[in-house]
Amino acid sequence: MSNLIQTNEKNGLRNSRKVLVVANGGLFSEMLINHCVQLTGRLGYDLVALSVHTRYEDSDSQKRAVESAVKLCELASLNGIHCSTMVRGGDIGFVVEDAIHEVKRVEFVVMDSETKSESMKNISVPIVSILSAFNESGGNVMPAKREFSKAGAIGKTAGYGLVSAIFCAAVFAHADTVTQVFSRGGWYAALPIATVLAFSFVHGAFAHNLWSLLGIEAHRSDRVRRTEHKVVQKRKYQRRRPRAYAYVNPFHKMGL
Amino acid sequence: MHDIANEAVKFIDLGFFSIAFLFVVGFIGGLVSGFIGSGGAFVLTPGMMSLGVPGTVAVASNMCHKFPKALVGAYKRFKYGQVDLKLGLVLAASAAAGVQVGIRIQHVILNRWGPAGSDLYVSLSFVAVLIVVGIYVLRDAMNISKSGGAERVALLARKLQSINLPPMITFKTANVRISFWFTLPVGFATGMLAATIAVGGFIGVPGMIYLLGVSGLVASASELVIAFVMGMGGSINWAMHGMIDIRLVLIILAGSLVGVQLGAIGTTYVKEYMIKLVMASIMLIVAVSRGFAIPKYLDRLGLITINHGWVTIFDAISFISMCVALLTGAVIILASMWKAKRSAFVSETLAAEAR
Fold first, then answer.
1. What pLDDT, on a 0 to 100 scale, did the predictor assign at position A254?
2. Shortest CB distance from A185 goes to which of B81, B241, B250?
3. Does the beta-carbon distance from A221 to B241 stay under 8 Å?
4. I want to staple B177 with a disulfide (CB 3.0 to 4.6 A). Which of B23, B86, B126, B170 is the partner?
5. Which CATH number fits domain A1-8+15-147+221-256: 3.30.70.270, 2.40.70.10, 3.30.70.2190, 3.40.50.620?
6. Are strands A46-53 and A18-24 parallel, antiparallel or unpaired?
């Protein structure tokens, strides 16, 4: 937590334009994270993640808020975007207004459409609302991803595993006959080829579900990676902006 | 020929140890090939032979497990947007020609110098290709690692891409536009190496990276397409001769299909140069392993004379170091995945840097 306060203190030193991302209840939704990272990447702005929680929330909620903000910052850093995190407690309207004054050069605020507060109307910079994936009770309204159902995954894994085991058992129970028929050659060649293809389908599906069940799934798509490189290149280019110079004699280059 | 296969198949003792060995090697081989596009075959063939499977049946069964594994790996990585199907198919076509030439060369050497000469040729090819390419890939991976992890297109690849020699082909996923004529040698060499040492990917993937300018990620994923096409063709050929032992194939597949998916998932976690690092490490250790096999073949050809005891020791070292190569690859993959998984620590560092 103290690190985050330091982040906040040093943040004011950077003189670049910023986008303030606000998460009410402390958690940044997947959709909000993706949108902000891509938006700031395109604009060449910096990102400030502000996680707001009410004062009476327990330490677990605060911990989750910090984790969520750090996750956003990690993705931003991978895309070559400068990002800092802030965790604050209190009324969202006041906290956001304070943050805007504190970090300086906040061009606009991005938040979930579900983040409602009367005091938000008094914010001095434009607010962009992102259609949230969460409703007020915390359930998924419009899930960006298919929700992972553990019972379904267990059922699928067990089902494919069973079929796969039966497949192997059938071959090994009649091993002599099977190997003898499969190794006759000629048109019988289709048998081993078809068998391995069928087995790869069943066992492949089993393996896929098994890894999903164990929580080992693809980290990010390659599309994200490509954007990463492009954004990094763009930002490098933007940093080489020519400076404006003021001359005493504006016609000195014209040879007049 | 059919009878020999049947006899051999009947008399293989598939005890618990054999099944466990094949399953584990299949899993680790699958993990490595899901990650770098190839691998595992170089341990499986000698491994099966050490269990008493005749050479031809071992080669045929190995190939028959390779193509469904490559299919599953390619499908998985296709979903992650890493496979350039067009690149894979174009290279697979020229690789097919390479395989034919590779087999002819093998036949010529076999007729002239016998089995020992053929084995010597295979081992020398292994050592020469793997050391040269392995050192180059390793140096590149180290440089990328030092310079911050961003891959750059090789100078040679950029030059080749700038030559407008029709027909030019655009590979969208790989984001490369290059003349068809430059893809030919890469595919051809992949096929030739596949026919010689059974692991074409050791030249196919570096070829795609350094000659065509494809990223390591797309190259290793597209290599799976090549492996599938070539493996399927080869398997049909072996199956028509009745050489495939379906039991061995199913046991290896049971492990490798689980491993290949983990390897494919692994590519989405790690930095791109890790693919090069894993590939180079495996290539160099395998080269050392094959180097230990050379004195035996030189002895058989009568070029040198060594003690029989030494031959046995060298054989053991050769096989163990091959297993070490595969294990090293697997350990690097799993360790880097584990590292990436614990991204909370990484993110704290990144947040600290951002300050």
1. 63
2. B241
3. no
4. B170
5. 3.40.50.620
6. parallel
